[in-house]
C-alpha cells in the first residue's frame, strides 16, 4: 500500500503539520518517543506510534521507505534531528522535510540530503516584518531569495486605470497574476482590465521591482 506522510516529532510544529494533513484527508503516520504526545495524536493521525527515530531498526520496521514524504519535526535535539534525517535519506525516502533550529543546523540538514528545510521561527519573523512594514502589502510569499508574490491593495493612484494604461509590466517588470475584488477573483486579468479602488492585486516579480512599484504608486 502506498502511504502518504509520516511526521516524526509531535511538538507544536510537527503537531500542527500532522493535524492539518489529517484535516486535508491525508494518510498520516505520527511518531514520537514521548508517550503522552503519541496518545494525544492517536485520534488525529491515521496511526500514531511510540518510537525513537534515531533507531534505524524502528524506522525499517514501520516501512518508512514506503512513505512519500517524511517530516522531521524534532525540536531542540539537533543531534536526533540530523541522525534521523540521515537514516531516512540512506533508507531511500524520496522527500524529507526537516525543521532547523539555526543556520548551522540548516546547512548540515541540506548537506546530508534533506529536500526542504523549514526554519519556522525565522521565516515567520520575516513574513510578519514584511507584512507590517507597509499597510498596503497584505500578504507575501517568498518564491526565492529575490522573487516574491505579494498582495497589494489598489489605492486611488491605481484605481480607475487599466493595467495597460499603467504599463506595469514594461515599467516595473512585474505581472499582475490575479485581482481579488470582494468575493470575486479575476485570474490572469487582461491588459484592458480596469483596476478598482480597493482591489487586491496579486503581483509577481523581483523584490526590487515590486519595491520600485510600491514606492512609486502605492
Ligand atoms: P516544537 O514545539 O518547537 O515543534 P518540541 O521540542 O516541543 O518542538 O517537539 C519535538 C518533539 O520531537 C517532541 O514531542 C519530542 O518528544 C520529539 N522527539 C525528539 N526526539 C525524538 C526522537 N529521537 N524520536 C522521536 N521523537 C522525538
UniProtKB/TrEMBL annotation:
Q: What is this protein called?
A: Potassium transporter Trk
Spell out the molecular function terms from Gene Ontology.
Answer: monoatomic cation transmembrane transporter activity
Q: Which InterPro entries match?
A: NAD(P)-bd_dom_sf, RCK_C, RCK_C_sf, RCK_N, Trk_Ktr_HKT_K-transport
Residue ranges constituting the RCK C-terminal domain according to the UniProt record: 135-218
Q: Which GO terms describe its biological process?
A: potassium ion transport
Instruction: Identify the residues that the record assigns to the RCK N-terminal domain, covering every copy.
Output: 2-118
| PROSITE patterns named in the record | RCK_C, RCK_N
Question: Which species expresses this protein natively?
Answer: Neobacillus piezotolerans
Amino acid at each position: 500500500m502506498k502511504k502518504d506522510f509520516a511526521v516524526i516529532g509531535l511538538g507544536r510544529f510537527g503537531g500542527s503539520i500532522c493535524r492539518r494533513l489529517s484535516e486535508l484527508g491525508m494518510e498520516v503516520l505520527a511518531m514520537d518517543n514521548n508517550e503522552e504526545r503519541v496518545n494525544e495524536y492517536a485520534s488525529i493521525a491515521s496511526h500514531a506510534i511510540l518510537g525513537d527515530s534515531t533507531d534505524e531498526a524502528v524506522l525499517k520496521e514501520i516501512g518508512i521507505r514506503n512513505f512519500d514524504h517524511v517530516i522531521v519535526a524534532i525540536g531542540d535535539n539537533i543531534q536526533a534531528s540530523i541522525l534521523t534525517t540521515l537514516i531516512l535519506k540512506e533508507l531511500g525516502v524520496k522527500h524529507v522535510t526537516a525543521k532547523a533550529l539555526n543556520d548551522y543546523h540548516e546547512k548540515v540538514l541540506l548537506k546530508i540530503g534533506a529536500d526542504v528545510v523549514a526554519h519556522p521561527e525565522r521565516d515567520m519573523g520575516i513574513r510578519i516584518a514584511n507584512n507590517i512594514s507597509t499597510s498596503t502589502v497584505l500578504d507575501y510569499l517568498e518564491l526565492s531569495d529575490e522573487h516574491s508574490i505579494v498582495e497589494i491593495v489598489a489605492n486611488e493612484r491605481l484605481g480607475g486605470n487599466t493595467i495597460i494604461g499603467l504599463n506595469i509590466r514594461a515599467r516595473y517588470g512585474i505581472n499582475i497574476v490575479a485581482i481579488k475584488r470582494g468575493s470575486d477573483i479575476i485570474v490572469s486579468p487582461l491588459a484592458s482590465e480596469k483596476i478598482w479602488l480597493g482591489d487586491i492585486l496579486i503581483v509577481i516579480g523581483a523584490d526590487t521591482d515590486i519595491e520600485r512599484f510600491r514606492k512609486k504608486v502605492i
